[in-house]
Each structure stands twice: as C-alpha cells, then as structure tokens.
TrEMBL record:
Protein name from the UniProt record: dITP/XTP pyrophosphatase
Superkingdom of origin organism: Bacteria
Keyword Protein transport carried by entry: no
One Gene Ontology term of the molecular function aspect: ribonucleoside triphosphate phosphatase activity
Source species: Desulfosporosinus meridiei (strain ATCC BAA-275 / DSM 13257 / KCTC 12902 / NCIMB 13706 / S10)
Lineage: Bacteria, Bacillati, Bacillota, Clostridia, Eubacteriales
UniProt-listed HAMAP family: Non_canon_purine_NTPase (MF_01405)
A GO BP entry: purine nucleoside triphosphate catabolic process
Length: 199
C-alpha cells in the first residue's frame, strides 16, 4: 500500500517509515507530487490545519494521506503562540526572533508559572472521505535563557523536567522517543495497518 505524508521534511518521512517497520506500506511525500500547491493553513487549531493539508493531498493523489501540524502552547500566554508558533514574531519565519519574542512576553512571569507544552495533531484522510485524528504532547516549562545547540524552533527554551534538560540538549534518539510528533505517529500506525487490511 502507498500512502502520502503531506510534508517535504525528510526527517518526518524517515521517522514515519521507521515506525512502520516491515508493514509493507510505502511512504511518499510532497516531493513526489508534480505541481503541488501549498495549502493555506488558516485553521484555528492544529487539527484543523492538519486536516486541510491531508484532504488536499488525498484530492491531489487519490491516496490515503497523513498530515501533521504542531506548535508550542504556553499557559501564561493563554495557549499562545499555538497555531502561530512558526510565525510568532511575524514574517519571514525566524526561530531566533520567535524565541526573543517569547522571552520578552514572559519576562515578568515567575518560574513556577511558565508551564508549556509542545502539541502535535496528525490527521489521516482517506479517498472515501474518512478522517482519523491522533495527537501527542510533551509537557515542560519555558526557561529564561536558551540552553543547548541540538534542535530548532523553541527547543533551546523548552525544559523537559523528566530529563532535566532542554529539548535542544537531548540526543536525537531521546528526542524522537519523547517528541509530540513521534507520539502522534505511533498512534497512527495501528490505524494505517487496519486501513491496509481493508484495501
């Protein structure tokens, strides 16, 4: 069975293929589609945006499609930056400016009130109109300064109590085991295997 993961991110494709193991499911990506036009992600939730991308990929290819959307939710900011995580400091997207803005917005917030989470929503859409949603979250808190060099986005500010390190200080294997996206992908595997059995 062939499926399409609505991304051009090689890391995501490799991660899903590894989780699928020998399930005899081939993962294609947007790089395999001619004339793909990016979908405007104007949903109000991560699940909305993931569904927009998954349904567009199904329409374009006729294959079962997966798409994810994820970001950072900070309790002291009423869940911001949320779906605007990548563009928190405006266009063009810039990790450093996003982190600077986050630190600025939280500068008066006590350490005990800096709880946050990374959240991922993953939608599986089928050619016959069915949709399945899986989610993953990682709980942590936002530090007052960056720590670590391995990672991107908000990783240097996101402290994981379980590991006593930031996401940017974790090894790749630790991060992949823990990550919100890996959790959502793992929950998607049995759904894909069931769909494969019906195809």
């Amino acid at each position: 069975m062939k499926i399409i993961l609505a991304t051009q991110n090689k890391g995501k494709i490799r991660e899903l293929q590894e989780l699928l193991g020998d399930a005899d499911i081939e993962v294609l990506s947007l790089k395999d589609i001619e004339d793909w036009e990016d979908v405007e992600e104007d949903g109000i939730t991560f699940a909305d945006n993931a569904a927009l991308k998954a349904k567009a990929a199904v329409k374009k290819t006729g294959l079962i499609a997966l798409a994810d959307d994820s970001g950072l939710e900070v309790d002291a900011l009423a869940g911001s930056p949320g779906v605007y995580s990548a563009r928190f400091a405006g266009e063009p997207k810039d990790d450093e400016r996003n982190n600077d803005k986050l630190l600025q917005e939280l500068k008066e917030v006590a350490d005990s009130q800096r709880q946050a989470r990374f959240r991922c929503a993953l939608v599986i859409a089928t050619p016959d109109g069915k949709e399945f949603l899986t989610e993953g979250t990682v709980e942590g808190q936002i530090l007052t300064e960056r720590r670590g060099r391995d990672g991107f986005g908000y990783d240097p500010l996101f402290f994981v109590p379980e590991y006593q390190r930031t996401m940017a200080e974790l090894t790749l294997s630790e991060k992949n085991r823990l990550s919100h996206r890996a959790q959502a992908f793992r929950k998607a595997i049995p759904i894909l295997q069931t769909l494969k059995g019906k195809s």
